[in-house]
Write a structure and sequence with these properties.
The protein is of the alpha+beta class. It is built from 17 helices and 34 strands. The chain is about 30% helix and about 25% strand. The protein is globular and about 80 Å long. This is Ribonuclease R.
Length: about 800
């Protein structure tokens, strides 16, 4: 216990030192308890902490924890970037939000003399690292130890082989950032690659002239058709496609779950409701009115989840393969599953009429929509029906079919009635309610793009979503109560910097955002309600989305800001997410429900490593899925160069404007040099490019017409020409009048739009233009093309 100061509050330095000594572990109550502060002093402590947050000395992490601004989690994924003057490795976090601090903290990697296998890293590697804060004269903030090397450095490029008539060929890189940077491959270095093959190439020492040279290292097969486009992302991100022989053997030897040791729920009419093209069905639901007179108007909801833990035991080959994958990856033409098909599409798929093992939760919900109690059960169930979202909704809307007709009264109506009750609790909780439509690419049988649709958001979707969220909360609550190791699904609140940026942006629209007290999703929802129906509604939704942090997995619970929940874990999809499998194992151990439980030897430190690893694999999957969609759309539009389209400005940077097309959702760039005959300034507050002379403004969310100028299908890159003239919304002083012009140093940070053709530009102006572009590239980038999002 730290001794209380004689003057009430201890010095600021003492409080900051205490926070630094307990990174990510302390809140206001912990500080008050440690310093022996009484109730009379706690109000002053809260005021002092608010001042420390305001001036950037500390920051809030979630609603309860207070940390240093650059605090890193104890376990994280880091990239080894170089060595210090003593030859020791230096690393930086693989994931770093530049809005919080311009430069990520550096980590000095300690390499023991006898490192364990797989824990020896080198420059360029990506590794799982355990870190602790240090005070270092060279500005090193952390000391770290490599736990596992996740990705070794390679001097290799992935791309498509294009043969030359005289032999040899060229590599067309698949990375959008390397678009246009081809490699030359000599005839003896092709390894018999054919035109259109996806290949990896080792770079050769440069000749000093001509194209860089490379040698084919590996061939992955032809991607000449759109049906194989997903192969590019799979190999580019090194997503494992093949399971080990041992894992396949375990899957093939698995037998259906027996009734022994389980409750018999086969007569309970649980049903699955999924997308029409779903290949696995791992969750089933049922609801009924609560007969208990003390809960009048309340309901009982059952959620049954496939018992994956029965088949995938800790330490088994199936378990090792699943952890490497972290999650399933979904492409328009294929799924790369976390588990072999024998498990995911057969034994653990809750198909109608077949007995299946499940881990189920029974939730009692009051008439006010709040969960009153819950209990978990290991059961044997039998699904009564498999429905699509549209099918279930059509039945409720008065258009039942042969399957849903008999289910309408006994099953579907009680489910929807229970959802109406649960929705009251959701409305009272008031989670973040962003309206960002999701597009889905539909393919023809030959693998080419048929169309891009925005599936209608139905009550059937909301029903399943709300019941799954309630089940996830119940799982987290039980494991917390039992004090067992747990991987949470967490979503931090926006940073002070992002909130300030959002407030400044909303001021430009005369939209109030008065933050007082705790930051809650309701503040954002109030803004979204104010702009509903306005021309800039879409714009505000996008900017609010970009102000949010990204959800992740962690053993430290700082709540889920977007869902407005104090504790939350993933429980409902163990077929496709490793985090859910860990939670299932924890529940089996907590309730002594039999085989497949979390081992007694499992430690929070090891689960922290798992959480860091699967957070990275989740982001890897999201990036691979997005890149594949970009490439498919670029293939689809490749023969429409010169056509005009309508879209919205989806991103504004110093490089130009990113445009999202209305009909396909395709993203492309309008380079800033093509915008006009004047300088355009990047206004970060307005999310806009503004002409210095005319005041013409191109702003995030504007509806524009564009012409497709270039399509690069392999890289998934599109380039547009802007056809819509910008409105003059910002007054500008004419040159030579009004306030003095900015200094030359400041003017040189501005980006210049193309005034004349490059070959007609005087040499000194050409040099100036390149200098300006270089200066702009060094500065902190603006709004990203895609923004950051949270996922429940």
């Amino acid at each position: 216990m730290i001794k209380k100061s004689d003057i009430g509050l201890p010095p600021r330095e003492a409080i900051v030192a205490f926070i630094r000594a307990n990174p990510g572990k302390v809140g206001t109550k912990d500080i008050a308890r440690a310093f022996g502060l009484k109730n009379a002093d706690r109000a002053a402590l809260k005021q002092l902490l608010r001042e420390l947050v305001a001036n950037g000395t500390v920051k809030k992490s979630g609603r309860k924890k207070i940390v240093e601004p650059a605090t890193l989690p104890a376990t994280l994924v880091a990239d080894i970037t170089g060595r210090d003057s003593d030859g020791e490795l230096i690393a930086k976090p693989a994931e770093w939000d530049e809005a919080e601090q311009s430069e990520p903290p550096r980590i000095r990697i300690h390499t023991p003399r006898h490192a364990r296998p797989g824990a020896t890293a080198g420059v360029g590697d990506r590794a799982l690292v355990r870190v602790e804060p240090i005070n270092d004269a060279e500005g090193i903030a952390y000391r770290g130890r490599v736990l596992k090397v996740l990705d070794q450095a390679r001097n290799r490029v992935l791309g498509i082989f294009k043969s030359n008539p005289g032999g040899g060929g060229r590599l067309i890189p698949v990375d959008k950032k390397q678009a246009g940077r081809e490699l030359s491959i000599a005839p003896d270095d092709t390894k018999d690659a054919k035109d259109g093959d996806l290949i990896s190439v080792d770079l050769l020492r440069g000749r000093g002239y001509g194209l860089p040279a490379g040698r084919v290292k590996e061939r992955f097969g032809s991607v000449a058709t759109e049906k194989a486009i997903s192969l590019i992302a799979i190999h580019a991100h090194e997503i494992p496609m093949d399971f080990s022989a041992a894992a396949i053997a375990e899957a093939e030897a698995a037998q259906p779950a027996p009734l022994k040791g389980r409750e018999d729920w086969r007569e309970l009419p649980l049903i699955t409701i999924d997308p029409p093209d779903a290949k696995d069905h791992d969750d089933a639901v049922h609801a009924e009115p609560d007969p208990d007179p003390s809960n009048a108007g309340g309901v009982i909801v059952h959620v049954a989840i496939a018992d994956v833990a029965y088949y995938v035991r800790p330490g088994s080959a199936l378990d090792r393969d699943a952890l490497i994958r972290g999650n399933s990856v979904y492409f328009p033409d294929r799924v790369v599953p976390m588990l072999p098909e024998r498990i995911s599409n057969n034994l653990c798929s809750l198909v109608p009429g077949e007995p299946r093992g499940a881990l189920a939760v029974r939730m009692v919900i009051g008439a006010d929509g709040r969960k009153r109690s819950h209990s978990f059960h290991r059961v044997l169930m039998r699904s009564a029906a498999k429905l699509s979202y549209a099918q279930a909704q059509a039945a409720i809307d008065g258009k039942p079919d042969d399957i849903t007709g008999p289910l309408l009264e006994p099953i579907l109506k009680p489910l929807y009635a229970a959802y109406e009750v649960a929705k009251r609790g959701r409305d009272a909780r008031d989670p973040l309610d962003l309206d960002i439509p999701e597009r889905k690419i539909l393919l023809k049988k030959d693998g080419t793009v048929d169309c891009v649709v925005v599936p209608e958001r139905l009550d059937a979707h909301r029903l399943i979503e709300e019941f799954m969220i309630s089940a996830n909360v119940a799982a987290a609550e039980l494991l917390e109560k039992k004090a067992l190791p747990l991987i949470y699904r967490v979503h931090d609140e926006p940073t002070v910097e992002k909130i300030h940026a959002l407030q400044e942006f909303l001021k430009t629209l005369d939209v109030p955002f008065a933050k007082s007290g705790a930051l809650r999703p309701s503040l954002f929802n109030r803004v979204l309600t104010l702009v509903a129906g306005q021309d800039y509604e879409h714009l505000v939704n996008e900017v609010v989305l970009r102000s949010q942090a990204q959800a992740e997995y962690s053993t430290d619970n700082y709540g889920h800001f977007g869902l407005n929940l104090r504790r939350y874990a993933h429980f409902t999809s163990p077929i496709r997410r490793y985090a859910d499998l860990v939670v299932h194992r924890g529940l089996l151990r907590a309730l002594n429900l039999g085989d497949g439980a979390l081992p007694d030897s499992e430690t929070p430190d090891h689960l922290a490593e798992v959480a860091a690893q699967i957070s990275v694999t989740e982001r890897r999957a999201m990036k691979a899925e997005r890149e594949t969609a970009d490439r498919l759309i670029a293939h689809h539009l490749a023969d429409r160069v010169g056509a005009t389209f309508q879209g919205r400005i989806s991103g504004v940077t110093r490089a130009g404007l990113f445009i999202k097309l209305d009909d396909t959702g395709a993203d492309g760039l309008v380079p800033i040099r093509t915008l006009g005959t004047e300088y355009f300034d990047y206004d970060e507050t307005r999310h806009a490019l503004i002409g210095q002379r005319s005041g013409a403004m191109h702003r995030l969310g504007d509806v524009v017409d564009v012409r497709l100028v270039e399509a690069q299908p392999v890289a998934g890159a599109l380039r547009f020409e802007l056809l819509t003239q910008a409105d003059v919304l910002v007054s500008r002083h004419p040159r030579g009048a009004g306030p003095r012009r900015k200094s030359t140093a400041k003017r040189n940070t501005k980006t210049k739009a193309k005034a004349t053709q490059a070959d007609a530009r005087p040499r000194h102006k050409e040099k100036s233009r390149k200098k300006n572009q270089k200066a702009g590239a060094k500065r902190k980038p603006g709004t990203s093309k895609k923004g950051r999002s949270w996922t429940p």
